[in-house]
Amino acid sequence: xxxxxxxxxxxxxxxxxxxxxxxxxxxxxxxxxxxxxxxxxxxxxxxxxxxxxxxxxxxxxxxxxxxxxxxxxxxxxxxxxxxxxxxxxxxxxxxxxxxxxxxxxxxxxxxxxxxxxxxxxxxxxxxxxxxxxxxxxxxxxxxxxxxxxxxxxxxxxxxxxxxxxxxxxxxxxxxxxxxxxxxxxxxxxxxxxxxxxxxxxxxxxxxxxxxxxxxxxxxxxxxxxxxxxxxxxxxxxxxxxxxxxxxxxxxxxxxxxxxxxxxxxxxxxxxxxxxxxxxxxxxxxxxxxxxxxxxxxxxxxxxxxxxxxxxxxxxxxxxxxxxxxxxxxxxxxxxxxxxxxxxxxxxxxxxxxxxxxxxxxxxxxxxxxxxxxxxxxxxxxxxxxxxxxxxxxxx
Length: 395
Known about the structure:
This protein is of the alpha/beta class. It has two domains: about 5-130, no CATH class; about 135-390, Vaccinia Virus protein VP39 (Rossmann fold). About 35% of the residues lie in helices and about 25% in strands. The chain has eleven helices and 14 strands. The longest helix has 22 residues, at about 310-330.
């Protein structure tokens, strides 16, 4: 056992004995086969009145839980880090310890301020696991979603559910990508507004997955960016920052995950394009105000009985816009999905485009032909994402 690993195991044992243990997250799989576990999560539970550690193994298509007596915690975690994982983030109320292994196989142990001020409750997980725990996410209180007692405020319940749904979806997308085995990540959130999701994404990657992740929130509202930056510093979120800019002006640079919620009209196309140009592994967009195709749309005669109505024509133009965006993303090597991420009872802007980079997609010509066929059928002259991709010779 290396010295850094021995020190981490000692910190874990001490935290369990002193009642300061919160949880531990293991990542960076040592076995990189397609069916191997990508992460493991360790927490304290009570089984038949006795304390145990519960280890949840996360595989690409399932989760497997194994329980062990608390006295065996050090041995169990040491074995995991010697055989299955290379990184571990230990959370205690006294401070965080982070074991990181570089590409040369050299482990280093880093210490940080405590992320949590209260230990885990130790109850057995018979209820649904929440990736967004209102009682364990201090930023939710700072942003006004959760009360000082750790309860979701009644007038913020819809916003909380929306955040919960998005983070849950993001967790599914990450499981389908190679992000879970990266040493560090970078996320850009365009049009972040009050930054509810920006903080949640920071928490998810840095604390839930235990992967050091730089997150940048971008919005044109300078006052909001200043306020959000102040909250991030107050919470000690060293890898979280906010910048005032527009989608069109901001150059994201190298980015692993690009998010753009409610970017208006062709700003969504710009965000998608910048994600493609940055070779992002995951791109998530929630389109808004799809106006570009509406005045161009000239339906064929056999569809006029339906599309002569302005309401239907508006809706169809939106559907056509996002369908073409999905096809164009697939032409660039992404697996694209257009989904409803929340009930339309909460918002009519409930369509999400998700693109996960999938090497070897090999459908460029087929997808571009489908785009051209749609343009010809509805006599569409231009589409913003297609034009941007043309500019870089990608279509």
